[in-house]
């Protein structure tokens, strides 16, 4: 519409009419003469408005979803990170508890034998040379570690130090076929030499072919000259089998080590031997065998005549 004098007058007239209707409607209240036309308009345009709303609502919901999807993805990522953090904390807590237990046992064994030790952690298993049964620990010459020192854990003999670097050391495990250690039999004190057999139980040759040895007897280290490579009295293992070797001057027994070599974590290097041989003082008390189950006795039932009759 062009801006002419007539159009301006029409606009002023429409505005004046609108104000007049509003004034009449307000003053009329519930009796307003415009209530009728308003109801009629609502009847006509209400269904149209509802239909348009139904058509538009899915589109609006989709737009809201698109708008909120970014924040929902952020919340999901945050929850996933929190879950991962909780898992790590739980794993770390379990590890701390496990190491606390290992350290407690290690210090208990060292205290019983009066061994002065340096605690170390296993950082590698195996050797790059000959695939021997070895471990690498995280202490070395800077910590006072030397070749041919005894290595223990809370269960007993682990091995001996063979190679030393400034911050690490290599330990030959007692199960290595090249490993040999002097052993003393609990009780009788019979001595012999044990050698590693890999995954199999260790083999011990008792020097006395008539030594009184039986399954279940335990052994400790005999000790070496100047306590290198072995200090005395370290728990060694339990006899699992007596090997029949008639005519031999020695007696062969198979020994299951106390140490679980596939689960090594914390170990102790003995840097100062005990003042005296502890012999068997480091061995834990023997557990009593389980009591035999009582033999059931035959029950009796009463016969009609009143006499007792055993069940067959």
TrEMBL record:
Gene Ontology CC annotation, any one: plasma membrane
Record InterPro entries: Cell/Rod_1, Cell/Rod_MreC_2, MreC, MreC_beta-barrel_core
A Pfam family matched in the record: MreC
Domain Rod shape-determining protein MreC beta-barrel core: 127-270
Keywords: Cell shape
Keyword Glycoprotein carried by entry: no
Chain intervals for the UniProt region annotation (Disordered): 277-312
Compositional bias annotation for Pro residues: 286-297
UniProt KW Kinase keyword: no
Protein's GO biological process: regulation of cell shape
UniProt function note: Involved in formation and maintenance of cell shape.
Family, per entry: Belongs to the MreC family.
Full protein name: Cell shape-determining protein MreC
Native source organism of the sequence: Streptacidiphilus pinicola
């Amino acid at each position: 519409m062009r801006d002419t004098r007539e159009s301006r007058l029409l606009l002023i007239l429409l505005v004046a009419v609108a104000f007049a209707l509003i004034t009449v409607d307000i003053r009329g209240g519930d009796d307003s003469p415009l209530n009728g036309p308003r109801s009629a308009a609502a009847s006509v345009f209400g269904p149209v408005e509802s239909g348009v709303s139904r058509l538009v609502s899915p589109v609006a919901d989709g737009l809201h979803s698109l708008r909120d999807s970014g924040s929902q993805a952020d919340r999901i990522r945050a929850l996933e990170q929190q879950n991962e953090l909780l898992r790590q904390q739980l794993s770390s807590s379990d590890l701390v508890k496990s190491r606390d237990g290992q350290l407690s046992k290690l210090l208990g064994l060292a205290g019983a034998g009066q061994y002065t030790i340096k605690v170390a952690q296993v950082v590698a298993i195996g050797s790059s040379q000959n695939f021997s049964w070895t471990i690498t620990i995280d202490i070395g010459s800077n910590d006072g570690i030397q070749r041919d020192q005894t290595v223990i854990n809370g269960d007993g003999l682990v091995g001996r130090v063979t190679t030393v670097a400034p911050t690490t050391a290599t330990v030959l495990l007692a199960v290595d076929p090249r490993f040999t250690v002097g052993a003393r039999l609990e009780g009788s004190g019979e001595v012999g030499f044990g050698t590693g057999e890999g995954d199999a139980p260790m083999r011990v040759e008792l020097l006395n072919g008539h030594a009184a040895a039986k399954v279940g007897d335990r052994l400790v280290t005999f000790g070496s000259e100047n306590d290198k490579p072995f200090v005395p009295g370290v728990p060694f293992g339990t006899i699992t089998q007596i090997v029949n070797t008639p005519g031999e001057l020695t007696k062969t027994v198979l020994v299951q080590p106390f140490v679980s070599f596939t689960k090594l974590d914390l170990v102790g290097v003995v840097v100062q031997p005990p003042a005296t041989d502890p012999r068997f003082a480091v061995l834990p008390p023997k557990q009593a065998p389980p009591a035999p189950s009582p033999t059931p006795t035959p029950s009796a039932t009463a016969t009609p005549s009143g006499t007792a009759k055993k069940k067959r």
